[in-house]
């Protein structure tokens, strides 16, 4: 499938992406593509002649969204556009990312291939976190492409929580927190916490404890269809919050229940045709260095 209606999104609040965005816009217009610039990005690019659209309009008008920045920019864009089911392509600004792999040096060639319909497409799962409290009528909800992290605020304080899988008790734990990660997020915070690396196209979720009080509590991989519930136990001396993708924060109080489940819609992630996930792992994790 070729693309002809393109939305451009730059790293939030970073004016240094202006040159790359305008270069991409020029290349796309030379191929007779319709191009829109994200409204928030446009605020940091004073001189341009591009049409402007917010995320909702981009989702309705475009068949491809191109992010310029790092993995964080693509995470934000994925959460904003996933319900519109449009494809996402990430351009990095000099540092290879796990998600953004179009390089500045190969930009024209790789962009031409993708626009012409020559690319690798992945469909990756996303999570939805819902916080419920008996004293609140409306639950708080956020999506996550990488991970949902339940963690403490205070230093040197633990949180106590019960974790249920499909309504059955998994464990009761005291720890600094809990990471519930997608395969995409398995190379992020979950990896730092000792979790396994999952193949990006797997339909699975991994739970990784953060500094658990019991050393017997190890990471566990679950089927992607599993419904996870975490109940924060009452503790007047400790406070916790939920963070999605390191970007969305929601405070917790004792008695809150957090439901995490796979979102019905998947993220459509586009890569250049030569994309190789294991090459990215070798480069990012430095597995190719000589000992």
Description:
By secondary structure, the chain is α+β, with helices and mostly antiparallel strands. The protein has two domains: 5-124 and 266-285, 3-Layer(aba) Sandwich (Rossmann fold); 127-262, Tumour Suppressor Smad4. It has helices at residues 18-30, 39-42, 55-61, 71-81, 107-115, 189-192, 277-285, and strands spanning 5-10, 34-38, 51-53, 64-69, 87-92, 120-124, 127-132, 140-144, 147-152, 159-165, 168-175, 177-181, 204-210, 220-223, 228-232, 240-244, 248-252, 257-262, 267-271. It has a seven-stranded mixed beta sheet with strand order 3-2-1-4-5-19-6, sandwiched between helices. A six-stranded antiparallel beta sheet has the order 8-7-18-15-10-11, with no helix packed on it. A six-stranded antiparallel beta sheet has the order 14-13-12-9-16-17, with no helix packed on it. Strand 1, helix 1 (18-30) and strand 2 form a beta-alpha-beta unit. The termini are far apart. The mean pLDDT is 93.
Summarize the structure.
The protein has two domains: 5-124 and 266-285, Rossmann fold; 127-262, Tumour Suppressor Smad4. The protein contains seven helices and 19 strands.
List keywords for this structure.
291 residues; alpha+beta; Rossmann fold; Tumour Suppressor Smad4; 2 domains
**What is the name of the CATH class of the largest domain?**
Alpha Beta
Sequence of secondary-structure elements:
EHEHEHEHEHEEEEEEEHEEEEEEEH
User: If you average the pLDDT, what whole number results?
Assistant: 93
Q: What is the CA-CA span between the terminal residues?
A: 43 Å
Main beta-sheet annotation = 7 strands, mixed
Helicity level: 10-25%
CATH topology of the largest domain: Rossmann fold
Q: What's the CATH superfamily of the largest domain, by name?
A: Probable inorganic polyphosphate/atp-NAD kinase, domain 1
Number of strands: 19
């Amino acid at each position: 499938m070729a693309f002809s209606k393109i939305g451009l999104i730059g790293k939030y609040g970073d004016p240094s992406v202006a040159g790359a965005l305008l270069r991409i816009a020029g290349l796309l217009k030379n191929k007779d593509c319709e191009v829109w610039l994200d409204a928030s990005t446009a605020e940091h690019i004073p001189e341009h002649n591009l049409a402007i659209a917010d995320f909702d309009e981009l989702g309705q008008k475009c068949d491809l969204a191109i992010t310029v920045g790092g993995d964080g920019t693509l995470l934000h864009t994925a959460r904003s556009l996933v319900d519109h089911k449009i494809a996402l392509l990430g351009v990095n600004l000099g540092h290879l990312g796990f998600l953004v792999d179009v390089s500045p040096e190969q930009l024209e060639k790789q962009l031409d291939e993708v626009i012409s319909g020559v690319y690798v497409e992945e469909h990756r799962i996303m999570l939805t976190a819902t916080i419920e409290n008996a004293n609140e009528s409306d639950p708080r909800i956020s999506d996550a492409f990488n991970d949902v992290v339940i963690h403490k605020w205070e230093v040197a304080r633990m949180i106590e929580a019960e974790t249920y899988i499909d309504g059955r008790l998994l464990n009761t734990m005291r720890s600094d927190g809990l990471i519930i990660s997608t395969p995409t997020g398995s190379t992020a915070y979950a990896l730092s916490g000792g979790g396994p690396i999952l193949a990006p196209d797997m339909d699975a979720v991994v739970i990784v404890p953060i500094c658990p009080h019991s050393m017997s509590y190890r990471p566990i991989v679950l089927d992607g269809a599993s419904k996870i519930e975490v109940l924060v136990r009452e503790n007047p001396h400790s406070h916790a919050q939920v963070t999605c993708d390191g970007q969305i924060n929601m405070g917790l109080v004792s008695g809150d229940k957090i439901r995490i489940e796979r979102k019905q819609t998947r993220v459509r992630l586009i890569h250049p045709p030569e994309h190789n996930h294991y090459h990215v792992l070798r480069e990012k994790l430095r597995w190719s260095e000589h000992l």
